[in-house]
């Protein structure tokens, strides 16, 4: 009888354990799989939001840069030959102001390493680098041409206000990949003048290494790939950036199935592969989520991808199954023994255990088997059961660690707007401890006046098809700390459906510091504007004074000279018989000194006029002008034999009158310094200057000069010859240089003593050759 | 008409320039009578026979006015403006003779109706030549406007 009862108990116990155990196992397995899959997605969504936040910030910054006063100033200066009359600033002054703004921007954004202004021909005009914390303005001579780079050509095609985001690649300097590698992402926008001409681009370079580091942290099996499958982040960094470094190693090499899915239209994909097609492959879980970082170019994207063997991904499930099997057996054996003696007690404990397992399967992962009420083998079984639960919980906590490590606040909120979780970042930012705030309505984190609007916003969002979106205008909202103070924040919110319920996750960043920095920049800008206005006024006054001064010089300084010369001459003529040779000699010296001073005054006035005159650009026939000027020289000294050779059809874009002064000076110098040459020869011609304009030169075969003194050549009152050898005032070349600089061009010279000299000049970035010159 | 009956009005405040100009005229054998006004106001009085020149014969008009620009009281450009504004002197030949080669003076001078604009050179020999050519042109070659 007792045997029968015991047998019955054994059978009952066994079937109970078997049925409940099986049900629990199956239910847990499904739940775990769902959870693991949904958690991978959620972790990826976090990274995506982070990437997007960074890119959005860069986009705003690049637009901000493009709209600052220095950019407008530079364009005005360029339009008017290097001088912005509106603010009386030179092109260089505006570049310097732009560099100041770039420096303060770099100081505030540690993940930027470079900001540049590149003109419409691809020449870098202003560039500030932040290389490992050292902010440095790149000097003029180290600026490069970037016309060949995709980010330049692509951005140049965009309309005003549009933004180009480059693919992520390794930075190049002078066409070579920089080492150590610098993974770089660029945000760029074109700048347009008021006339609608494209005037170059603003580019911000983001140092992407830190973003990639975050992806590598994710358990070691996550990758970031681009649209072609090349790795941007890989557990082994040597396998990344194959497209830059010249090796072909892609996602298709290791996960052909996933690579194929990536080509499709799916933005998000997670799959548990139970029947792998490759021989020897095991079951695995893989997936990806695409990140479209450049809205204007949807075929470019990144994908966060992962591929885990099922044995790793579902490790907690395998443990669960093995333990169930092992302990099922044990229970059967125990059941038989227990059935004999404590059948009743055994079956009660077994049922209790099964009930607990059932409740855990309903999602109460905090439940544990109460070991105190379990005896003997049930105690062992309970311990094993609890161990299994710990391993399940730890796989969850891996993800929650990531969430907690984030510096941003991550707050999950239920559908009825109650706080479900509150990470450490949120504790730090809001001042609440997670324990005291979980379960509270979200409203206590929002200033009262925004509560209604926020509620509406969240209800709308729940209805939208989008998975994630920004909160507030420009993602800016106000947060309320525990101590009642408000702070500006940037926030994004995403939604996930968990077991039929909607859960919102808000990612929020305290931007107090950033807002302060922006205000600082705005303040600096305003200060800059007012300084410009003040300087302009000062300059106007000093310019008026200068005009009055030069008028007075022109008129009053010459009058006494005329008297000295005139009366000197009168003395020579009227009192000739009372003067001996010595006296006449002295008088002649007085007269020639007077005339020299007259010449000096005239040249000085020309120099000052060249500095002040407004530049009116128009096509100038340089060939014709050179011939006219030369003909005048010839008329003045008809006895000299000088051969002139002028290239046909030279047409420049510049100020007619000022260019004439340039040619007068250069040709009269050539004329003068060939006066002792047997077969004097003067040549004028042009050649492409390498930036789209032309360089002109006047070459002679005269006495030349020593290149050691070339620096002095263009300075006012600098002469390389004694007046006895060659007369002159030493102002001509200073005037030439002033005029060329006013045009935004460059003047330089080459020579060798006894072998003649060549004087070169360009007319700045706007002096493109006209069509006339092209046809010749 | 006897060429030497034609008179010249020299408006010049600088005594040195006055003497040199007179000397230059003499050296060119221009023996016409030269009346000198030492500021703009005196030039106006002379031309319109008023003030100190009340007694002057208004029909005796200078064949040419040599006008400096920078003058005390009334400047040269204003003198020129009044000459051109008055019916009696509207057609009188006026040559600006000045040190200034400032563009603004040139433009104003011509737009107010100056017949010539001469810059006094520092080199006296050149000055003599210039004055000679002026005299030759305005006193000999040029057909004066009807009186």
Features of the shown structure:
heterodimer, A: 776 residues, alpha+beta, seven-stranded antiparallel beta sheet, five-stranded antiparallel beta sheet, 21 helices, 28 strands, 48% helix, 21% strand, elongated, disordered C terminus, B: 147 residues, alpha/beta, five-stranded parallel beta sheet, 5 helices
Describe this structure in words.
The complex is a heterodimer of chains A (776) and B (147). Helix content of chain A is 48%, strand content 21%. Chain A is of the alpha+beta class and 776 residues long. In chain A, strand 10 and strand 11 (198-207) form a beta hairpin. The model of chain A is unreliable at 767-776 (pLDDT under 50). In chain B, helix 1 crosses helix 5 (124-141) and helix 2 (40-47) runs parallel beside helix 3 (76-85). The longest helix of chain B is centred in the C-terminal third of the chain and has 18 residues, at 124-141. Chain B is globular, with a radius of gyration of 14 Å. The A-B interface holds A 550-551, 554-556, 558-563, 565-570, 591, 594-595, 597-598, 602, 605, 609 and B 14, 16-17, 20, 23, 69-70, 98-103, 120-125, 127.
The rough form of chain B would be described as globular
- The residue ranges of chain B in which pLDDT falls below 50 over 5 or more consecutive positions are none
Q: Overall 3D geometry of chain A?
A: elongated
Average pLDDT of chain B, to the nearest integer? 86
Mean pLDDT of chain A: 81
Q: In which order are the strands of the major sheet of chain B placed?
A: 2-1-3-4-5
The total count of helices of chain B amounts to 5
The count of β-strands of chain A is 28
Class derived from helix and strand content of chain A: alpha+beta
Q: Major sheet of chain B: size, sense and barrel closure?
A: 5 strands, parallel
Beta strand % of chain A: 15-25%
Cα-based radius of gyration of chain A, to the nearest Å: 42 Å
Measured between the Cα atoms of the first and last residue of chain A, the distance is 124 Å
Radius of gyration of chain B: 14 Å
Q: Which regions of chain A are unreliable across 5 or more consecutive residues at pLDDT < 50? A: 767-776
What is the SS-derived class of chain B? alpha/beta
């Amino acid at each position: 009888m007792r045997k029968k009862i015991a047998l019955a108990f054994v059978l009952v116990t066994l079937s109970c354990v078997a049925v409940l155990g099986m049900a629990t196992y199956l239910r847990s397995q499904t739940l775990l799989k769902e959870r693991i899959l949904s958690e991978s997605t959620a972790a990826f969504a976090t990274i995506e939001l982070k990437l997007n936040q960074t890119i959005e910030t860069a986009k705003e910054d690049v637009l901000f840069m493009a709209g600052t006063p220095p950019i407008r100033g530079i364009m005005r200066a360029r339009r008017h030959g290097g001088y912005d009359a509106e603010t009386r600033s030179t092109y260089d002054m505006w570049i310097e102001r732009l560099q100041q703004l770039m420096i303060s921007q770099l100081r505030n954004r540690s993940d930027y390493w470079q900001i540049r202004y590149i003109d419409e021909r691809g020449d870098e005009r202003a560039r500030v680098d932040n290389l490992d914390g050292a902010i440095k303005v790149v000097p003029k001579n180290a600026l490069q041409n970037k016309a060949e780079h995709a980010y330049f050509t692509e951005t140049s095609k965009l309309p005003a206000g549009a933004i180009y985001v480059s693919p992520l690649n390794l930075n190049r300097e002078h066409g070579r990949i920089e080492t150590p590698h610098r993974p770089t992402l660029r945000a760029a926008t074109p700048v347009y003048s008021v006339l609608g001409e494209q005037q170059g681009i603003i580019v911000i370079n983001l140092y992407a290494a830190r973003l990639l580091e975050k992806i590598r942290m994710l358990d070691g099996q996550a990758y970031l790939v681009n649209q072609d499958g090349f790795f941007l982040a890989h557990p082994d960094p040597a396998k990344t950036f194959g497209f830059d470094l010249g090796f072909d190693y892609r996602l298709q090499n290791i996960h052909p199935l996933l690579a194929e899915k990536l080509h499709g239209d799916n933005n998000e994909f997670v799959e548990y592969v139970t029947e792998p097609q490759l021989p020897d492959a095991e079951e695995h879980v893989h997936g990806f989520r695409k990140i479209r970082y450049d809205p204007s170019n949807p075929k470019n994207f990144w994908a966060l991808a992962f591929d885990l063997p099922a044995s790793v991904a579902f490790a907690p499930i395998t443990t669960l199954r093995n333990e169930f099997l092992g302990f099922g057996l044990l229970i059967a054996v125990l059941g038989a023994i227990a059935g004999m003696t404590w059948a009743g007690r055994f079956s009660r404990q077994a049922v209790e255990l099964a009930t607990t397992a059932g409740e855990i399967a309903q999602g109460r992962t905090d439940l544990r088997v109460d070991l105190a009420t379990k005896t003997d083998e049930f105690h062992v079984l309970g311990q094993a059961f609890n161990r299994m639960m710990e391993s399940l919980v730890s796989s969850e906590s891996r993800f929650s660690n990531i969430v907690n490590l984030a510096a941003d606040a991550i707050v999950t909120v239920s559908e009825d707007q109650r706080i479900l979780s509150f990470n450490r970042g949120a504790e730090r930012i809001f001042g609440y401890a997670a324990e005291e705030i979980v379960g509270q309505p979200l409203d206590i984190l929002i200033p009262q006046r925004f509560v209604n609007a926020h509620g509406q916003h969240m209800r709308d969002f729940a209805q939208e098809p989008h998975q994630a979106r920004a909160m507030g205008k420009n993602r800016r909202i106000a947060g309320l700390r525990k101590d009642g103070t408000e702070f500006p924040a940037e926030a994004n919110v995403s939604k996930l459906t968990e077991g039929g319920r909607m859960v919102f996750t808000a990612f929020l960043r305290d931007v107090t510091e950033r807002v302060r920095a922006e205000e600082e920049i705005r303040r600096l800008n305003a200060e800059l504007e007012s300084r410009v206005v003040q300087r302009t006024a000062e300059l106007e006054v000093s310019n008026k004074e200068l005009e009055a001064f030069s008028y007075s010089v022109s008129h009053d300084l010459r009058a006494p000279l005329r008297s000295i010369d005139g009366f000197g001459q009168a003395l020579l003529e009227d009192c000739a018989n009372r003067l001996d040779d010595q006296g006449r000699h002295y008088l002649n010296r007085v007269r020639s000194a007077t005339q020299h001073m007259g010449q000096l005054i005239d040249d000085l006035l020309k120099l000052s006029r060249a500095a002040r005159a407004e530049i009116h650009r128009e096509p100038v026939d340089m060939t014709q002008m050179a011939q006219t000027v030369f003909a005048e020289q010839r008329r003045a000294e008809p006895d000299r034999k000088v051969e002139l050779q002028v290239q046909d059809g030279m047409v420049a874009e510049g100020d007619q009158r000022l260019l004439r002064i340039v040619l007068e000076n250069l040709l009269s110098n050539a004329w003068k310094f060939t006066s002792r040459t047997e077969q004097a020869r003067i040549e004028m011609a042009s050649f492409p200057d390498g930036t789209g304009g032309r360089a002109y030169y006047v070459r002679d075969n005269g006495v030349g000069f020593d290149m050691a003194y070339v620096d002095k050549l263009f300075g006012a009152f600098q002469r390389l010859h004694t007046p006895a050898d060659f007369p002159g005032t030493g102002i001509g070349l200073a005037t030439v240089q002033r005029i060329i600089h006013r045009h935004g061009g460059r003047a330089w010279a080459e020579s060798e003593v006894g072998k003649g000299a060549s004087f070169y000049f360009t007319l700045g970035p706007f002096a493109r050759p006209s069509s006339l010159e092209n046809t010749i | 008409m006897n060429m030497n009956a034609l008179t010249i009005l020299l408006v010049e405040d600088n005594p040195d320039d006055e003497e040199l100009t007179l000397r230059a005229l003499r050296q060119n054998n221009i023996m016409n009578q030269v009346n000198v006004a030492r500021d703009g106001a005196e030039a106006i009085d002379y031309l319109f026979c008023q003030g100190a020149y009340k007694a002057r014969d208004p029909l005796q008009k200078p064949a040419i006015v040599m006008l400096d620009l920078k003058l005390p009281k009334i400047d040269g450009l204003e003198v020129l403006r009044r000459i051109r504004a008055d019916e009696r002197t509207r057609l009188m030949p006026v040559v600006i003779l000045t040190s200034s080669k400032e563009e603004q003076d040139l433009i104003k001078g011509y737009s107010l109706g100056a017949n010539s604009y001469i810059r006094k050179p520092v080199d006296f020999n050149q000055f003599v030549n210039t004055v000679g050519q002026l005299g030759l042109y305005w006193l000999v070659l040029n057909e004066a406007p009807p009186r």
